[in-house]
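We treat protein structure as text, and this decision shapes the records that our systems exchange. The tokens are whole numbers drawn from a learned vocabulary of local backbone shapes. One such record is reproduced below, unchanged from the form in which we store it:
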Amino acid sequence: MTGYHYFFISSPLHFLLSVNMAIRFGDTPSIAVISSRIESNARLLGEVIRREGRVFCDVITLESGPGQGHGSKARQRKQRMQVLRDCLKERPAARIFTGTDRHVEFQYAMHVARQHDAAVEGIYLDDGLHTYLGSRRMHSFQHKYGDALLKKLYYGWWWKNPVILGTSGWISTVYAVFPELAHPVYREMGKTVLPFEARYFDDPAFAGVSQALADVVGLDRDILARLDFVLLLTHEQHYADPWAHMEKMMQILGAHAPPERIAIKAHPRSRLLEELRTRYPRLVHLDNRVGFELLLPFLREDCVFLADISSSLLTVKWLQPKQRAFAVEVPHPTIEHYRGALQALFTRMGIEQVSYAELAAELEQTAGS
């Protein structure tokens, strides 16, 4: 298949899986399209890609920001679409990969690319828990029909509404970390569901990306190698009280390790970064822009990972099946809607699900054995 592979990257997980796929299809030149709504994240990913310089032949950063004045968002979107239109004309696509087909930039790129070549493939890369649990709104009339019509009227008739991420009419193939556990709607809608291959993370090219990342963010490997616990935080909107959760976790983990051997990693979109550093100055604060999975090679095998509904637990068990991982149950209305499905999913993946009290007891038992 002639043409270029375009990878739309808007999160650390998208970056990780895009690198995997770009190495997998190494005979085809790959272009990274950074579409993160967070400017600092976009800058970091762009710098890492340019510094490594082999996996992707080019990187395009779609500028995004609050803008100023009436109609500024529309102007920004128009500018981004012009960038995509020019690039796809000069370097036609063969495949376009994305971790979210809800982003208008991806859908517009597919629309333009198909005008050049009707055979261009749209491919969805696992976005984490959405791929396995679906969406609360996926069966609502408003979501399936009302929102779809409004977006067609607003963006254009080329808009194809996804029921859940990866199900829009632009997508033909879905790559999932655990394809056998992917939501049944993908196959019901005629999507081909295929597995990622973890062996590409052992490729020298991937090591080059990890090294470039370490250089850019200044990772201290000695500090990482001393960690006993890594706490992965979901976005604060998923906690009834994020500080109550932090205090409880620090109480439990602090009984088994000094603060210098405990790391926390905030969600990529968290607004609590400065306050976390102020409240917990002695903890190791991992850069929230960095895909946690890229740090695994620098951590000990007996390092324990803890989260609640973080997608990183899935990829930890995929890349390091023997690594111990706990899912701590936290109360929140959104989580309660998925509780049953989430528990079944974590059980099948070998992720231990515990309450605060059960976690404390389990760590106490481990320490005494």
In short: The CA atoms of residues 152 and 159 lie 5 Å apart.
